[in-house]
Amino acid sequence: MKAPLRLAIAGLGTVGAGTIGLLARNADLLARRCGRQLIVNAVSARNRTKARGVDLAAARWYDDAVALAADPDSDVVVELIGGSDGIARQVVTTALEHGKHVVTANKALLAHHGTELARLAEQKGVALGFEAAVAGGIPILKALREGLAANHVTRVCGILNGTCNFILSQMRDSGREFNDVLAEAQRLGYAESDPSFDIDGVDAAHKLALLAAVAFGNIVDFAGVHIEGIRHVSALDIEFAAELGYRIKLLGLARLTEHGLEQRVHPCMVPRTTPIAHVEGVFNAIMVEGDFVGRVMLEGRGAGAEPTASAVVADLLDIAAERWSYGFAVPASALQLRATSPMTRHQGAYYVRLMVVDRPGVIADIAAALRDEAVSMEQMIQRGRAPGEAVPVVLTTHDTEEASMQRALDQIGKLKTVLEPPRMIRIEQF
Ligand SMILES: NC(=O)c1ccc[n+]([C@@H]2O[C@H](COP(=O)([O-])OP(=O)(O)OC[C@H]3O[C@@H](n4cnc5c(N)ncnc54)[C@H](OP(=O)(O)O)[C@@H]3O)[C@@H](O)[C@H]2O)c1
User: Fold this and answer.
1) Which residue from 109, 162, 266, 281 has the least number of CB within 10 angstroms?
2) Cβ contact 430:274 at 8 Å
């Protein structure tokens, strides 16, 4: 057997402790699979005395995670602290500069600095593994880099945030409003006390930028992601979605268009008949379309100690067996910077909900605003009749350009009979 692979682990929280637990519990299996042992040589966290439910007796303790990253007695630094800058970035940079392989679950760091870190890793001839950063336990990056490597990817899209998917699933099941379900998710530990990164779509956007980079060979372009969260999705929209044959999901989507790379995270109406509509609760799923393979979908747990540890250790096994490859599938120097395809050029169908005064002529005014922008309506639902009172009017459109849709909505929003800003949700076809 080869010499053990020596690991230095920075961060002993949910994922750090989960990773150490997996390394201990499955030690024999891992050694058989890569021909050597994986041993935890050194660890670092903030609080040395905290109980973490794992045996750290054999590991050297570092108060300073950056010093741990430079420890000459380790081969791989595993960064599980988190954050796009600060200590996590210093740990990863220091490790790479010292010629150590790095494995991380840190999507925020890679979404902001992934290309530059990949470049540094290549200069030093070491691996930068980040499978755990995208959809936790789902091995989507390996699938893109290896199993699907023969394809031009035409579209990648997925449910990339379990907190949002849990909230939307619960809203649909219970008919309750967003704030109510968010509070429940917080009580159950599915949402952070400050949930904004999740519910405002930022976490999903970090993951999408990484997915798009691997799928399309693009420089990681987080700034190019259009981001909308789920705060404005109402119980009424979820009810109408069901009536129209859709479910509402927060999706991350990327594709190449004639205008460049389109990357977007926003609530979508997806047909109830499509597999992704049935991915419920905290589960994640990613669908890839390749020019030869067609559609492939992977579903699983996108977070949590054990699923995320599964992805971290898969990267470690590749390093141990010396079969790792470029993190972004191609050398950093081969990554392209494509133009961002602007949302105004997005082509698709739309769901629109209006709260209107039930009065003769209202529908004609709405139809006229759509006609003026050449937006073709597919169907319209007017719920209930209450002359002189507010009633919801819902319509869906055929495919149209977003700029036209936005102009039509601006006009509709100015009508005196329309009482609230129009709510628009994009419809995604599969
Ligand atoms: N949780 C998930 O399900 C999940 C899934 C996928 C990816 N990730 C990513 O994995 C990373 C870790 O997430 P997590 O949920 O495990 O976080 P966490 O539970 O908050 O753990 C963070 C760890 O970092 C340590 N730490 C903080 N500042 C430090 C410093 N200056 N020096 C040394 N250690 C420091 C903390 O020490 P103390 O314990 O002493 O406070 C803690 O052990 C993040 O990048 C996250 O985005 C998480």
Assistant:
1) 281
2) yes
* pTM for the model: 0.97
Cβ–ligand 1 contact at 233 (below 6 Å):
no
Which residue, judged by its Cα, is nearest atom 33 of ligand 1?
45
Degrees to nearest 5, angle at CA 279 with 158 and 198? 55
Per-residue tokens: 293: 């393979």
The CB of 65 under 6 Å from ligand 1? The reply is yes
CA dist., res. 25 & res. 280, Å (int)? 30
81 lines ligand 1 (CB under 6 A): yes
| pLDDT tens over the chain, length 430 residues | 799 999 999 999 999 999 999 999 999 999 999 999 999 999 999 999 999 999 999 999 999 999 999 999 999 999 999 999 999 999 999 999 999 999 999 999 999 999 999 999 999 999 999 999 999 999 999 999 999 999 999 999 999 999 999 999 999 999 999 999 999 999 998 888 899 999 999 999 999 999 999 999 999 999 999 999 999 999 999 999 999 999 999 999 999 999 999 999 999 999 999 999 999 999 999 999 999 999 999 999 999 999 999 999 999 999 999 999 999 999 999 999 999 999 999 999 999 999 999 888 899 999 999 999 999 999 999 877 777 788 999 999 999 999 999 999 999 999 999 999 999 999 999 8
